[in-house]
Amino acid sequence: MTRYAPLAGLTAAAGFLLGLVAAGTWPAAPTTPPAVPSREAPAISAPAPPPPVRLPLDSGVDFAAVAERLNAAVVNVDAASRGSAGRARSAPERWSREFGDDAGAPREGSGSGFLIDASGLVLTNYHVVENADRITLTLSDKRVFRAEVLGIDPAIDVALLRIPGAEALPVAPLGDSESLKVGEWVCAIGNPLGYVHSVTVGVVSFLGRKLFDQSLDAFIQTDAAISFGNSGGPLINARGEVVGMTTAISSQSSNIGFAIPINQVVAVLPQLREHGRVARGYIGVTLTNLTPALRLALDLGPNAGALVQDVAPGKPGERAGLRPYDVIVGVGDATIASDEELIRYISGRLPGTVAELQLWRDGRTRMVPVKLAERPLLESSTGDALAPGRLRPVAEREHGPLGITVRDLDATLSARNRIPDDIRGVMVGFVDPAGPARLARVRTGQVVLEFNRRPVGSAAEFRMLAAALAPGQVAALLIYDPLVDGRIIVAIVADPAP
Fold it and tell me: What is the pLDDT of residues 408-466, one digit of tens each?
């Protein structure tokens, strides 16, 4: 408290003086000098104080207008799978908290995304749609679309989705994340914990944060509230431009969230569109920054650069003759001041291309050509869990276009499941975890009484009615739910035949 007292006193004094000026009580100007006989002196008056500065009410950040403009381009992403051999993301604590601990079990996940093209291109996180058998997008106007995966980049946790046949959809404008500054206001729009299209506001807390992959990560840290379900949603600046994709939160604090810089996402979009995956250049060396301490201790010449610590055997760096203690100071015409700059440059080059490295070794500078290989994924990442460009069949043939199987309801089955005697219909025996009935919250043990207002007398009749549905046609089912001991009506959109 003591160390702030002088500053506080100075501030109070300055405030007092400013108050005097604004009030016009600054000491009076000298009085008018006596008149000179030869001519009359003009009167001198004190200058009028400047009017107080008042900012217009609309000069601040208006995130209400930003949210109104961009909400239509933000989508809710529902992903469902029948089960998987394993997940490919290197953040197990995030997976276990967001989707459960059993990696091989059927799962449902909810995230966010945003439209970047009127033809139906959507960006979201890879971990939101990983291993998904069905992806459903819901817009703010309640329109629902099926989506397919066009491309994936597990390395930076990005997926590009496509809505087949879509047109004239609202689009979120993309900004420049390189222009962001710490302390700048931003907002996040997404679906945290299922609360769709929630808007939160905060500031940029840090730029370039490392979380998972020390060589590629450059996360935007923000205190705008981000929760599970925000993953894949936009982080937006005060101009209404997307500057990041929200992707992670701290497990230790409720006000620390992270977003992928949009420039990093935009850089891989061409490869995601054309090839469905991202290939990055790779040298195969371990790097660190050349600090003043290392420069002095190792008697190195350059003032900055990427210092080679280790060279992986059999990789391009070894084949090019790189050694520990080499300092890479440039690539082609570009100057390299840090290991991050070098990694960013090399990762932006395609495998198979040649990079001309300018390096300092033993008192002299030399040029070393390196033919780049493809950067491998992290060891914990398989990268092939979800084939880009298509989804696996949306429903097994035996489950039909509604994704459920039913069985005849007899006296024994009714008694075992405590179904009232006056209930007539067919019992739901299985619900496909990635089928349309699961999205409608149909559960096993419920009894289907009517199909589009037609009573259902047998399982065979139900299958006949379901098989007659055209893709996209809606079936309205009247269902008895024993959990509430009452009837409910659900609408299920029929899938295409597998």
Answer: 988 888 888 889 988 999 999 888 887 888 888 899 899 999 999 999 999 999 999 99
Domains parsed from the chain with CATH numbers:
66-275 (2.40.10.120), 281-374 (2.30.42.10), 397-493 (2.30.42.10)
Q: Which class for 183: exposed (0-12), middle (13-18), buried (19 or more C-beta within 10 A)?
A: exposed
Write down the catalytic residue from 81, 84, 231, 347.
231
The three-class DSSP label of residue 334 is: strand
Q: Is 58 a catalytic residue?
A: no
What does the alpha-carbon distance between residue 202 and residue 114 come to, in Å, rounded to a whole number? 20
Compute the C-alpha angle 111/80/432, nearest 5°: 155
Q: Which of 157, 223, 432, 495 is catalytic?
A: 157
Instruction: Say which residues have a Cβ less than 8 Å from residue 431's Cβ, sequence separation at least 6.
Output: 403, 404, 437, 438, 442, 443, 444
Mapping DSSP onto H, E and C, the string for 140-181 reads: CCCCEEECEEEEEECCCCEEEEECCCCCCCCCCCECCHHHCC
How close are the terminal C-alpha atoms of the chain, in Å?
71
The CB density around residue 456, as the number of other CB atoms within 10 Å, is: 23
Residue 179 is encoded by which pair of tokens? 């222009």
pTM given for the model: 0.69
Of the residues 90, 127, 205, 381, only one is catalytic, namely: 127
Active site residue 275: no
